[in-house]
Every structure is written in structure tokens, then in C-alpha cells.
Amino acid sequence: MKKSFFLFTLVLALPQVSQSQEGWGMEELPQSLRGSNATDAASETPTWKRLPPDHDPIQRDFVQQPPMIPHKIEGYKITLRYNKCLTCHSWSNARKANATKVSLTHFKDRDGNELANIAPLRYFCTQCHAPQVDANPLVENTFQPVQTLR
């Protein structure tokens, strides 16, 4: 029964398909999405944009101040499973990337136990470290750094 129904449907469909293609000439073929602006010439390879060089490390103004981030971090992914900062600042990559290594203090948990990996409470860098920009201050800053750090 199924075979005969299939054959019957196929017999009805074949004439429809053949009739729909009879009127196609070369002028009726689908055109390029570019229309008459289509080109066969190869485009030039785009040049890579060079990122601006990082700034020198920013001077700290008080004892135990976390270092400021001297480069842009826009678009950096820091999630529970991935931390973009560690691609340069981990102990294994810091020398190749010419970056500051993560401090040893980041490998201790809240009880002072040394860990093999960065402690969870230190994993999200931007909790303490912040990027800086050259901008005019919104309010006057009268802060004076500790004399021993100068």
C-alpha cells in the first residue's frame, strides 16, 4: 500500500518538475547579490591593526595597593571557567608575553594554605585591579601618596 501511494505521488510530481524548468534560459538564472557590481578581481588581504603599546606599570600610591592595569581590557572574558588575563599573566606565560606575573599571594586561600592554582577568591582580577585611562579628572584630587613609596 505504501509503495503504491509513493509511486502514485511520484508519477504526479514528475511532470510538474519538468514543466517548471522548461522556461529557464540563461537570462533567467539567478543573478549575483552584488548585481552589476560583481567583480572577479581578488581583494587585497586586510592589514592587521596594531594594538597601541601598553603603558609602563602605574606607580602605586599606598602600601598593599593592587597594581593598576596599564592596558585596555575591553572585551576580555573573565568567567568561572576562563580568565583571559591568565593568557599573559600566568606564571607559565608571563615571560613569553613580557607581562607581570600573578603575585604569590594569589595562590593562598583565605586560611593561608598554599594552592597549586590561583585561589578562587583571587580569580576575578577586576575585583581589585582596574584599568586606567588618560582623562581629565572630574573632581580635584588632593591625595598625597605615602612618603616611603616615592
Could you characterize what this model shows?
By secondary structure, this protein is mostly helical. The chain has a domain at about 75-135: Flavocytochrome C3, Chain A (Flavocytochrome C3, Chain A, domain 2), CATH 1.10.1130.10. It contains three helices and no strands. The longest helix is centred in the N-terminal third of the chain and has 21 residues, at about 1-20. The mean pLDDT is about 80. It comes from Candidatus Thiomargarita nelsonii. GO terms for molecular function: metal ion binding. It is found in: Periplasm.
What's the short story on this structure?
With 150 residues, the chain is mainly α.
Q: Which SSEs are present, and which pair or pack?
A:
Layout: H1 2-22, H2 86-89, H3 94-97
Radius of gyration: 32 Å
Q: What name is given to the CATH topology of the domain at 76-133?
A: Flavocytochrome C3, Chain A, domain 2
Secondary-structure element order, as H and E? HHH
Largest sheet: none
Beta percentage is under 5%
Main location: periplasm
InterPro entries: Multihaem_cyt_sf (IPR036280), NapB (IPR005591)
GO cellular component, one term: periplasmic space
Protein name: Periplasmic nitrate reductase, electron transfer subunit
